[in-house]
Amino acid sequence: MSTEIAIKVEHLSKVYKIFDKPIDRVKESLNPFHKRYSRDFYALNDVSFEIKKGETIGIIGKNGAGKSTLLKILTGVLTPSAGTIQVNGRVASLLELGAGFNPEMTGIENIYLNGTVMGYSKEEMDGKLNDIIEFADIGDFINQPVKMYSSGMFARLAFAVNAFVDPDILIVDEALSVGDLEFQNKCYRKFNDLKNENKTIIFVTHDINSILKYCNRSFLLKQGNLVGSGTSKTVVDLYKKMISGGSTAKNDIKEKITDNKNKYNNWKGLLNLNKNFLEYGNKKIEIIDFALENEKNEITSIVSSDEYTKIKIRIKMNEKIDSPIFAYSIKDIKGTELIGSNTFVEGVNTDGLQKNDFYEIVFKQKLSLCGGDYTLSFGCTKHNGDELTIYHRLYDMVLVKIMSVKPVCGLFNVNTEINLDKI
Ligand SMILES: Nc1ncnc2c1ncn2[C@@H]1O[C@H](COP(=O)(O)OP(=O)(O)OP(=O)(O)O)[C@@H](O)[C@H]1O
């Protein structure tokens, strides 16, 4: 294998035998004619790729796609059923968080224990000890047995040990999400240091913003198959398409509209809906469908902060009502309302909507928020003096992911223009 290559995987498969009933396992092992009572399940199916030294690679895929299986094989925790892996360099992994720790030993003793496992002498570890303790930042707990640690402390020590034992290849999975925000931030800075030192990093996460920010290349796994590889932007686009049902739904919907007005309920099935949404109102006006549409007119729950996004609502007038207000709002996951708009503040005339008719309201704007998870709510209301009539509200209805390739200071991207002049 070329010295430029850190990891080379060829035709890797991991097959599990699935038995419908526990007794079938016994029957199969005892059957004199090798009759099968099981079927094969491919957690990984004929996967091949190369990772060059110094690359930061993201691995994405839905739950059960085979990501952990792949990482466990790369770190030697699992053996493949077929195929080969060649690894060039020392691998550190945060996979089995703190798996190398002895619960009875203190944090410091475990640092030395892990160092020995990684092939370092006591003297070499003496030189790294302070950096590790400082990074983990768990105070006096470093002298306590690790069985007394919280999961966050475990994560801190595990990351610190793995990042500072000078690995050539660092494998990280969602483990990081255990730590608090400040610690996660510190870990990402450490990622950057390791990247700059030309270390290879493999990173598994569901957080596509981190993938876009830190990984130059990514792989997409689907049901054990490697279905995409390339720049993170390309692979994330593919993943977005996959999780939104591969839809470019506009045409289908147009057909169905002319088909039958009462079937105006096709968009929402393409979105990531929140099971815990809140619905109320007298339904004299009823929200019958809604959508989030990206610049390519695809219905999706994932949009970029720098693209024009349409938020669409379809309503049915169950009564004739003049001047209703149609609105949407976007909240962060803690429930703080961040942005929104409505037909009233924008001065849109909503008079003359007739009973039993259907209407479509489209809000078009850039959702210039920092990358992350949000909820989208819809509402139809009306002010009568101080009184507010609520016809229909769907609170926290859609789970929306906003991607921001550009780092944002604070909550919003205000797209500042900056001049620097000599004076
Ligand atoms: N020991 C096992 N026996 C049978 N099936 C298994 C076993 N371990 C994993 N699988 C299956 O292999 C598939 C891939 O699992 P894996 O944990 O690699 O997925 P993943 O992409 O990491 O998912 P997640 O994002 O949920 O962590 C899943 O369908 C899982 O149920």
Topology, please?
Layout: E1 5-19, H1 22-30, E2 38-52, E3 56-60, H2 67-74, E4 82-87, E5 91-93, H3 107-117, H4 122-136, H5 151-164, E6 169-172, H6 181-196, E7 200-204, H7 208-214, E8 217-222, E9 225-231, H8 232-243, H9 250-259, E10 278-280, E11 285-293, E12 302-304, E13 308-317, E14 325-332, E15 337-342, E16 358-366, E17 372-384, E18 387-403
Parallel strand pairs: 3-7, 3-8, 5-6, 6-7, 12-18
Antiparallel strand pairs: 1-2, 1-4, 8-9, 10-18, 11-13, 13-16, 14-15, 14-17, 17-18
Helix pairs in contact: 3-4, 4-5
The structure holds adenosine-5'-triphosphate (ATP).
Protein name: Teichoic acid transport system ATP-binding protein
Organism: Pectinatus brassicae
Family: Belongs to the ABC transporter superfamily.
Structural features, described:
This protein is α/β, with parallel strands linked by helices and 423 residues long. The protein has helices at 22-30, 67-74, 107-117, 122-136, 151-164, 181-196, 208-214, 232-243, 250-259; strands spanning 5-19, 38-52, 56-60, 82-87, 91-93, 169-172, 200-204, 217-222, 225-231, 278-280, 285-293, 302-304, 308-317, 325-332, 337-342, 358-366, 372-384, 387-403. A six-stranded mixed beta sheet has the order 5-6-7-3-8-9, with helices on both faces. A hairpin with a 2-residue loop joins strand 8 (217-222) and strand 9 (225-231). The longest helix has 16 residues, at 181-196. Mean pLDDT is 85; it is low at 246-264. Adenosine-5'-triphosphate (ATP) is lined by residues 16, 41, 43, 61, 63-69.
